[in-house]
Amino acid sequence: VVHSYCSKLNYQVIGGISKLWSYFLRNFKPIDAIIYIDRRFSQGLIFKKLGFRLLKILPPEPWVFGKDINGLVKMSDIQCLLSNYQYKVWDCGTYKLGWFKNLQPHSHNI
């Protein structure tokens, strides 16, 4: 499971996602794969080029934050109910994309 993908500030890896995906296909030989893309940062175009299909556009989700001695921290709903300070921030939702080996052109069936 890849939890997130990130890169170093001011650095660029040309074809980085494609290289990671090719490695994953060669070494793990998946039958299918599901990914979620944060709509704040991407439309998922590179994954569509890799053969992923849009399965669903998921709605925005709330993130609940509260204050503790260290400042603003993500909290559970129960923690926020017990605290005097709470903030609810909505994200932009996610794209759910799927890759299915049996739907790929022959060149992607590594």
User: What is the N-to-C succession of helices and strands?
Assistant: HEHEEEHEE
| Distance separating the two termini | 19 Å
Structural class estimated from helices and strands: alpha+beta
Q: How would you characterize the largest beta sheet?
A: 3 strands, antiparallel
Q: What low-confidence regions span 5 or more consecutive residues with pLDDT below 50?
A: none
Number of strand elements = 6
Q: Could you tell me the strand content as a percent range?
A: 25-35%
User: What is the arithmetic mean of pLDDT?
Assistant: 82
What is Rg?
Answer: 18 Å
How is the largest sheet built, in terms of strand order?
Answer: 1-6-2
Count of alpha and pi helical runs: 3
Principal-axes shape call: elongated
Helix content: 10-25%
What are its keywords?
single chain; 110 residues; alpha+beta; three-stranded antiparallel β-sheet; 3 helices; 32% strand
Q: What is this structure's SSE topology?
A:
Elements: H1 16-28, E1 32-38, H2 45-49, E2 53-58, E3 62-68, E4 71-74, H3 77-82, E5 87-90, E6 94-100
Antiparallel strand pairs: 1-6, 2-6, 3-4, 3-5
